[in-house]
Input
Amino acid sequence: MKRLLLTISTIAVISSSSMAQDAAAVDTSWKTGGIVGLNFTQVSLSNWAAGGQNSISGIALFNYYANYNKGKNIWDNSIDLGYGLTQNGDADPIKSEDKIDLATKYGRYAFKHWYYSALLGFKSQFTPGYNYPDDSTKISNFLAPAYITLALGMDYKPNDNFSVMIAPLTGRIIIVNDQDLADAGAYGVDPAEYNELFEKVKDGEKMRTEFGASIRALYKKDIIENVNLQTKLELFSNYLEDPQNIDVNWEVLISMKVNKYITATLATQLIYDDNTIIAVDNNSDGIIDEAGPRTQFKEVLGVGFSYKF
Output
């Protein structure tokens, strides 16, 4: 696990340095920066009377932006990656973080602080996820789901720290590139069809298209000395089905610098998606008591190596 996390962070550092050098060679109107971090937590017990078990966890984070601003043109690009594993005792490692988030946005000046804009975004994860503690029921995989978003609208950008894009024309493709999940109708795709003998007669669809409106707001700034805040809020309404149900994705990353290389990070994410069904076992007896869309929340707090560039 340590080797995997170290490899991810090394690739992130090399790629970010290369991108920054290439951008600087092309045009001085580029502004680039980001954060790469590797956080570890370990608990080791021996003859510990109070009980407990050994554990180790690690999370690699990589956040990078490359923004171009010259004349009437702006072009903002971002990469947000994360992967983490946790192992308790002799149990197999399970993932605690898994994120791929890429976005590129082009804008052409319209009038004071407003730009005609187009946005292309991609989201997914690296590895399969399971409904722990049940490690046999797969609930996600690479490209299952994956979200591809194309939005057209107006972008308000008064400075380099803040922008909000209002896009009344937004298309979204939801990909479920795992036949088992597609057959189950996961993430809103059409499920498989079966005959009266429960034999599958038609595979579940691996793709779902939506059309609606979206809002995407970004803010990043050093709020006080050695403390950086980055936050992103995304809202989406599907014109074609239940437009009153707003999909929400809100992320916050706070980086607190201890010294040149040691940083504490706090990352949170809140998600609500009407098409994502969450199964709940209230009694931990292996029987699903209820299932439906729910508010999802994740918090990751870590201290470790971090480099801001």
